[in-house]
Amino acid sequence: MGSSSAGRVRLLQLGALAAVLALWALIAAVGVVSSTALPGPASVAAAFTDLVGSGTFWQAVGDTLRGAVTGLVVAVAVGIPVGLVTGVYAAAEESSRLLMEILRSFPVIALLPVFLLVLGSTPGMKATVVFIACVFPVLLQAQYGARSVTPAVHETVRSYRVPRLLRFRRVILPGAVPSIMTGLRLAATTSVLVAIGVEVLTTLPGIGHMIMESQQAGVSARAYAYILTAGAIGYAITMLAQLAEQRLLRWRPPMHPGGE
């Protein structure tokens, strides 16, 4: 029953995609919107085919992914330890709460002029903006996961005098993994979106810059091809994160009784 249900969902998803493509083609053919503003699917597909065979395309993809991955890795390296510590120790959470709330309240892209003034239009600036956008989803989910470890488990570990570092490695971290993976999934998608947003608003190379360059040159089909590439990368990252989550959590069947 599970496989037939999954197949039905897949068919519905493909049907929805086909309907969107058909509507897009109809609007482009009728001329409701000018071809400059909205080229047809065939024109975009042809532009995408041309791009895939060029080195410029892959250079842009590489520049975007480099900034996104660098910022994401640093966000994970900072967010998980800080989240676990603040999730376990109430004093650490209370003392940092105000600062966290203030930092979270600022839209990252709105702070871009500040980063440009301080760091300049450099790849490091792009990675820094990605880091700030990604660190809070990871940190907060790690914090939530650490809190989800029951008091009984903490008491048992404490009664056996397990060293703190070993307690974090063997008890807190494994218990927080499901929540951490949720944060990683959110942060991974955010990293690409923010990297592209920075490229659109600055002169930094990448997919975002190529979208703006194509638009300014009047080659809208190429601009849409880059936009769809950005969407495809985001979707692929989400699927990979979900696959990694399923693999990592395979050893925790009691935590997901409704799964599989």
From TrEMBL:
Compartment(s): Cell membrane
Annotated transmembrane regions: 71-90, 127-146, 192-211, 223-244
Cross-referenced InterPro entries: MetI-like, MetI-like_sf
Cell membrane found in the keyword field: yes
A cellular component term, taken from the record's GO annotations: plasma membrane
An annotated GO BP: transmembrane transport
Annotated ABC transmembrane type-1 domain residues: 61-245
Key words of the record: Cell membrane, Membrane, Transmembrane, Transmembrane helix, Transport
UniProt superkingdom: Bacteria
Membrane topology according to the record: Multi-pass membrane protein
Family: Belongs to the binding-protein-dependent transport system permease family.
Record's protein name: ABC transporter permease
Species assigned in the record: Streptomyces sp. NBC_00093
UniProt lineage: Bacteria, Bacillati, Actinomycetota, Actinomycetes, Kitasatosporales
